[in-house]
Amino acid sequence: MCLIIGFLFVSSSFLISTSTSSFFNNSSLCHLHESFALLQFKHSFSIFNDTSYDYECGCSLGASRILSWKNGTDCCTWSGVTCDMVTGNVIQLNLHCSKILGIIYSNSTLFFLHHLHRLDLSGNDFSGSQISSNFGRFTSMKHLNLSYSSFSGQVPQEISYLSQLLSLDLSANYALELQTSSLKKITTNLTNLKELNLGYLHVSFVESHSLMNLSSSLTSIELCSSGLQGKFPEKIFLLPNLQVLNLDFNENLIGSFPNSNWSSCPIRELRLSGTAFSIDMSYIRNLKFLNILYLNNCKFIGSHPPLLMVANSTKITHLDLSDNNLGGYMPSNFFLNLQQLIALDLGGNNFVGQLQETCANNSNQISLLYNCSEHQLLGHGPMNLEYLNLRRNKLNGTIPSWLYSLPVLRTLELSENQFTGSIQEFQYVSLSFLNLRDNKLHGPIPVSVFQQENLTTLILIRNNLSGAVGLDLFSKLKYLGDLSLSYNNLSLSFNNFDNYTLSNLEWVELAACNINEFPYFLRASENIYHLDLSQNKIQSNIPKWLWNVGVDTFQDLNLSHNLLTGYLPEQLPWKKLQNIDLRSNLIQGHLPIPTPSIRYYFISNNQLFGEISSLICTLTSIQVLDLSHNTLNGSVPQCLGNLSDNLSVLDLRRNMFDGIIPTPFSKCNSLTSIVLNGNRLKGQLPRALVNCRNIEILDLGNNMINDTFPQWLESLPNLQVLVLRSNKFHGSISSPNATFPFQKLRVLDLSNNQFHGVLPTQYFENFLAMMHDRRVDKLEYMGEYNYYQASVVLTVKGLDVNFEKILNIFTTIDFSKNNFDGKIPESIGKLKSLKGVNLSHNKIYGNIPTSLGNLSNLEWLDLSSNKLSGEIPMQLSEITSLAVFKISQNHLVGAIPHGKQFNTFGNDSYTGNLGLCGFPLTKTCGNDEAQQPSPSVNDDDEEPTNGFDWKYVFIGYASGLVIGISVGYMFFSDDRLACFMRKVGGERWLKLLKTRRRNGGFNRRRRN
């Protein structure tokens, strides 16, 4: 290979030398063979036309440097090329961000430039290229930068041959790997190296001992996100010239600071974020030259509060202590002392209290206090501050006035706190990023916000801001890319502003902003990828121009909960669309089909009709498909089973689908919810559902499915909700061979089918999720999946209730309107978390089991229209949460239990049981029929209360005997009042009652 390259080099040199007149004039400084090498290098690549700005590698708009390279001109004058003015050799090649696309092969003419001292190929796309061993031939190289250029493969050991290197940057080539042997040779042989950047390389198998031989001349070491592990050598902290050390985000890298001789080290920038270092702030505070300190998500040791340790470090310019769970109040002199601050990030902690105002005391000295009188406010703060991030803390009070007076503040991030008051006017127009979301701010948006000509991000979501906002206010915000004003009390208006556009918008959130027209200004937003206009009052067709906006960029579109009308195109135009939400509008026509990249598709609660196109089966990335509450008809495409590999939620409820249920393929582990309720589906349940091991919600109610009970579903380990109501299921539901069936089931609705046989004792004994009376610290919901929330319609207390969310503590069993017979098993009393039981309209006989009294959480119990006999168990009176109790149309006898909840049930709870007596029925019970009093009564000899409510005792005691007896006359029959008087006052009070009766009767006769 070397011979071939040499031959090519000689041949090319010969050709160049024989045609000098066609390329250069006599005054050209550039050597002919180097000019030819550069031109050949240029022609081996293409130039991509991406005009966007790459923030990560610092690439800006502009033409590629190599476009200026022309035949017949001096290569020393070409953009990016520098020659030695004496020898004419090309010594520097700077092609940073030149939009170069292609592969650098090992025989590239780049390697003919033997005299290069500096080579910068960063910020290009050499995807698929490996770093050739021929880079080791640049023996004069002092600066090599190959960062952000998509190199892959192994870093060759030949890089260690570049013994004169002063700087080496291979960072951010994410597919590039560095082996231990190569790292050791680099750290050992490059003894002149001053700057080393290997950040974001894949070096997960390289341990920190490989760094032991780093050159003492190093001034900068950057190894962030490199997978380093083990203990970091302390001696590296003591390198005599080290100024920058960046070890960020090596999560398995441990270490600690040197115990001595460290304070005099020249370190000015220290980054240990996301490592397992033991950070003792008392060591850091002694670093004399430290300006930049990044300790995000770290492990602190020692008794010194980190914030207090840096409060007196007057030289700190950049400080990041975010996401460390730090708490308490900020030191009173914090912002005063750090007057040199340029950037501060304390986000993701637990700081409380108010941000202090800057005040002047009686001695005319500046101090920071929590409260300042108006004449004391100076507005002073760290005047060099450009970046302030206090997101996700617990700060409250008003935003201090000095924050509005910082002359160079670019980023202000105060989101997710508890700030109150109004937003004041900013005194300068330096802002580019403003985020105040999720606070308690009120009042209008200040006029000064709309004067920030460099503003790219404005986020004010979820506050109490108010006032009218017209589009004309945004006329100066030419660079605005993120506009988020959702969930305030604002009223946005776009009337008469048809000429205004915000062409740089990429992220727009204007949900619940009282918008009543579609924002016309979006028509020029070619790069938009997120738009949320949900929960407004937009009453119109979706404008046709929207289909031409963001065709190549749109990813998220939410127009839900408006009054949008009209028809949609059969195929949506956006090529990269991932999430679309059109729920709860008035959209008509056939179901539109989005691009195959779609993941979440919501179009429920509209007026769609017709059959589903088979094109829906091209949505191979779909995770949630919600077409519910429309009038779609025809059969459900069987090819939907092909989507089961990725599909997690399929919701087709409340349409007019017929035919059979699609059969999911064997790989359906992603499915968590299948909701087909309220259609006309027939046939049997697909047995392949048993392969869907992660199903939580299965709702097939209100169809025409004709099948036996799917006992084979009992093995699904995560099934929580099973609704089969109102179908044509038949047969027995008992499973004598069941081992551990339906252990996570919490909602079971089999009502209105044709099941028969005895109730399933073995199920009641194994419904583990229904057995535990759970008390949870945090209420959660079943069937939640990202943007989707499972809902279900159940019969609760005799009414059909739509549960838009299903609480994780909700449990119910409904077997009503079937042909079950036999007795109610005592084992039902084990299901202590049950909220409701409905066994009505069956043929169940026998006694009501006393074990039902164990269901202390029960809120409704319906046993009506059966053949139950015997007495109502007194134990049921202990269920204090019971709100609905129905046992009508049975053969029950004896006294109705009294007290507690039983005093609230009406006659309709007991009708059709001719043998029952007692309150609230008019039929009273004799002594021999009376039930025992409730356990709360201690006297075993006392007579029954016959429906008496003890609140009347308290009325009597509080108001005196006469008033008490008068109240008794108003509320009780004679027999009940006699019982009451005997309980309260014994025979003496009973005689008084009889005397009053006689007198009352005599007086009545006299009045007549």
TrEMBL record:
Gene3D superfamilies: Ribonuclease Inhibitor. It comes from the Eukaryota. GO terms for cellular component: plasma membrane. It holds the Pfam family LRR_8. InterPro entries: Leu-rich_rpt, Leu-rich_rpt_typical-subtyp, LRR_dom_sf, LRR_N_plant-typ, RLP23-like. SUPFAM superfamilies: L domain-like, RNI-like. SMART domains: LRR_TYP (SM00369). Keywords: Cell membrane, Glycoprotein, Leucine-rich repeat, Membrane, Receptor, Repeat, Signal, Transmembrane, Transmembrane helix. The chain crosses the membrane at residues 952-972. Belongs to the RLP family. This is Leucine-rich repeat-containing N-terminal plant-type domain-containing protein.
